[in-house]
């Protein structure tokens, strides 16, 4: 099939028919010199430049596939290639110039070195990139990433139930990345432009009184001591996730019961008052943990980086206990099998309950996230009658209206509030003595075996 001249548009190229088997159709853009779109019998459409080099033979340089590469992106790259050819570059040099454009993965490394590491939320941004952008976009050239691709990722996040704030954070990261690509002369347009932010509702989830006994029991049965202590201290201190993960022994003053965080999300240091139960856990942990970090890890940061799997184990373990309890209450039995993994055990318990037509509503602690542990302490402080100013200081919230009040507060009322809230939480969980907290963090809750 001969070459056909048309003006390239998205709709026009999308409507191009596939040629017969064994043939390839070639279309020339009437707007950009040398730009072609070749269509195979299977419908694959590929942009390329077909030009005669100065003093040489005609050469073809493949640019990318449509629609992953848009018409505008193809024209931009074609213009760059044409300019290089006019300057006398040979085909190999032109191809190298095109291949030299970074992929998103490579550019994200540059972004981190030149900009990201200066951001207080850089660690969170790295996690957002790994979770949502790396797999679908990491291998693509930055110029080949378009608005539709970004929009699809954000829509998929919404479909999967991600919070509006999480979707907006990923959108903001992508916009920042491509904004720097423009600033550093890799791109001329930002593909995130025009994608609307999502409605973000503030979460108000915290552990309720009837959930605390179940939760503490499941934590106590967690076999990984690192995860047990991390979860307990996250709850008892109300500190942000990143700060608990990076907690250092040098920041703990056992004598005064204070954890001094030198740098927080708000850009200010924070004195966290440690309830007696938190001090008990830290002292027990200090006897067995070496190194600078309270929660050491094998990654590049030297401390625990991602507790998510352990967190899910705790929730899974509680759900398993609730389901098997209902199975036994209905006159059934459920026995563990040798070699069966935790996931298989839980799925089999769910299937057994369904087969027995047992209602499993409420068997899993509903919609609880690690960050909700922080909110739990603040909520129980409020239940005990603490003022918003006291709660704000204990959690290091930053409020323009209350900043002056926070500055005048000392730690004594904060400590009293934290201790009161801690005691109320433990009482609701059926835990009355610090020794029982040690039993939990030591994995001696004495409960039925679970995944």
Corresponding CATH architecture of the largest domain:
Orthogonal Bundle
What's the number of extended β-strand segments? 8
**What proportion strand?**
5-15%
| Terminal Cα span | 64 Å
Alpha-carbon Rg, integer? 29 Å
**Secondary structure tally, helices:** 18
Q: Quick one: CATH class of the largest domain?
A: Mainly Alpha
The succession of helices and strands, N to C, reads EHEEEEHHHHHHHHHEEEHHHHHHHH
Form type? elongated
CATH topology of the largest domain: hpI Integrase, Chain A
Instruction: Return the structural class.
Output: alpha+beta
User: Major sheet: size, sense and barrel closure?
Assistant: 5 strands, mixed
**Biggest sheet: strands side by side, in what order?**
1-2-3-4-5
- Percent helix, as a range, is 40-55%
Supply the CATH superfamily name of the largest domain. Intergrase catalytic core
What is the residue-averaged pLDDT? 85
In the residues, how many domains can be counted?
Answer: 3
Structure overview:
It contains 18 helices and eight strands. Helix 5 (122-137) packs across helix 7 (164-183), helix 11 (276-286) crosses helix 18 and helix 14 crosses helix 17 (411-428). It folds into three domains: 3-99, Integrase, DNA-binding domain (Double Stranded RNA Binding Domain), CATH 3.30.160.390; 104-183; 212-308 and 367-441, Intergrase catalytic core (hpI Integrase, Chain A, Orthogonal Bundle). The strands form two sheets. Strands 1-2-3-4-5 form a five-stranded mixed beta sheet. Helix content is 48%, strand content 9%. The protein is α+β, with helices and mostly antiparallel strands.
């Amino acid at each position: 099939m001969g070459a056909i001249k048309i003006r390239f548009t998205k709709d026009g190229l999308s409507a191009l028919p596939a040629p017969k088997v064994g043939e390839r159709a070639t279309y020339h853009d009437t707007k950009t010199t040398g730009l072609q779109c070749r269509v195979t019998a299977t419908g694959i459409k590929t942009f390329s430049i077909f030009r005669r080099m100065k003093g040489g033979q005609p050469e073809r340089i493949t640019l990318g596939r449509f629609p992953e590469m848009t018409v505008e992106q193809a024209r931009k790259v074609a213009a760059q290639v044409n300019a290089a050819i006019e300057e006398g570059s040979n085909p190999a040099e032109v191809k190298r110039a095109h291949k030299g454009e970074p992929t998103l993965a490579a550019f994200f490394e540059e972004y981190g070195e030149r900009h990201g590491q200066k951001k207080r939320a850089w660690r969170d941004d790295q996690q957002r990139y790994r979770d949502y952008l790396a797999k679908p976009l990491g291998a693509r050239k930055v110029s080949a990433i378009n608005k539709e691709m970004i929009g699809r990722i954000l829509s998929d996040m919404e479909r999967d139930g991600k919070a509006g704030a999480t979707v907006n954070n990923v959108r903001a990261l992508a916009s920042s990345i491509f904004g720097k690509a423009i600033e550093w002369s890799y791109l001329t347009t930002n593909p995130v432009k025009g994608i609307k932010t999502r409605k973000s509702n503030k979460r108000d989830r915290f552990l309720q009184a009837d959930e605390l006994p179940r939760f503490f029991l499941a934590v106590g049965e967690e076999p990984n001591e690192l995860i047990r202590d991390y979860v307990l201290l996250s709850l008892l201190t109300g500190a942000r996730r990143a700060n608990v993960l990076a907690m250092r022994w040098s920041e703990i003053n056992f004598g005064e019961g204070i954890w001094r965080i030198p740098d927080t999300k708000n850009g200010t240091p924070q004195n966290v008052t440690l309830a007696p139960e938190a001090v008990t856990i830290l002292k027990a942990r200090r006897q067995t943990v070496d190194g600078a970090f309270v929660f050491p890890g094998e990654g590049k940061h030297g401390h625990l980086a991602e507790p998510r799997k352990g967190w899910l184990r705790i929730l899974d373990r509680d759900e398993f206990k609730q389901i098997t309890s209902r199975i036994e209450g209905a006159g059934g039995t459920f026995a563990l099998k040798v070699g069966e993994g935790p996931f298989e055990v839980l799925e089999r318990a769910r299937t057994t309950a369904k087969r027995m037509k047992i209602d499993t509503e409420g068997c899993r602690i509903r919609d609880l996230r690690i960050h909700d542990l922080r909110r739990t302490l603040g909520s129980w402080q409020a239940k005990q009658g603490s003022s918003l100013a006291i709660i704000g200081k204990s959690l290091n919230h930053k409020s323009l209206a209350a900043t002056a009040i926070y500055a005048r507060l000392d730690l004594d009322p904060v400590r009293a509030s934290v201790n009161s809230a801690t005691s109320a939480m433990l009482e609701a969980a059926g835990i009355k003595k610090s020794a029982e907290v040690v039993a939990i963090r030591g994995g001696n809750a004495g409960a039925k075996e679970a995944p």
